[in-house]
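Class prep. Sample record?

___
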Amino acid sequence: MRAALDAAAAVAAARKAGPEDRLRGERIIREGRAAVADGDLAAMASADFAFHDFVYSLAGNRLIAQTARMNWHHVRRSIMLLAGEPTKLGPFWDEHDQILQAVVGRDATAAAQLAQHHALASSRILSRLEAAG
């Protein structure tokens, strides 16, 4: 479900993105990368939420944002499961950056594909961590 929501939000966001949105998104990504570098799980979770909320807000669809926020605890759980290995979260910020570039580049197709891939990859990692732990 998250993959479909994130893809729909990315499409809508790409259709509405303006030049000022690039700066806002890049700031969030810098914060996320800094949190990973510092091993600060709370800051990682906060920045991850901020990035996804940025896309949902930019999309302008309250239903997508509300539904996604209801499932946020799953994302926080995956971050906490990686507590001993925070550097494994680094690639997620590369994915966030790719999504941002597609959104601000107004490439709705790429934004949807990248957002869907990111959500599915996150889900697979969470499933593996839960099975191992």
